[in-house]
Amino acid sequence: MTESSKAPVELPVDVRRIAELLPHRYPFLLVDRVIAFEPGKRLTAIKNVTINEHFFQGHFPGNPVMPGVLILEALAQASGILVQLSQEQLPDAKPLYYLVKIDKARFAKIVRPGDQLHLEVEQKRMVMRMGQFVCQAKVNGEVVASAEMLCAERGP
Fold it and tell me: Checking CA distances to 107, which of 52, 72, 92, 145 falls within 20 to 30 Å?
């Protein structure tokens, strides 16, 4: 199949399709929907943060705050979706991408139940099955977290 004959990705991409692209499952699938996509370049996804999230039971009782590490994980998952949607693959080929490095991680604001995270990832380069991404998580247009990530393809 050539680049020109690939069917375009139909937006939004829902959680059922995301589950086909990523190996993550509840309670660790942290992307609900893809709302923007440019193959090999960028992707915007949504994570709806609800009080029903398992981590709010202990982080923190009476003052629920989404852990920063889970915001970074959501950004890494969005990066994986960008790669998976961008790749031309055989139906049975499902390479896994693992997070191997995080640089310049910053947390600017607290994320609470009721917030909607917009996960914006941009692929800077893909070399020898390793991808570098610049990532931002936003709530109401304001950056709440950002980082640069490196992900690498590994066999199962």
Answer: 52
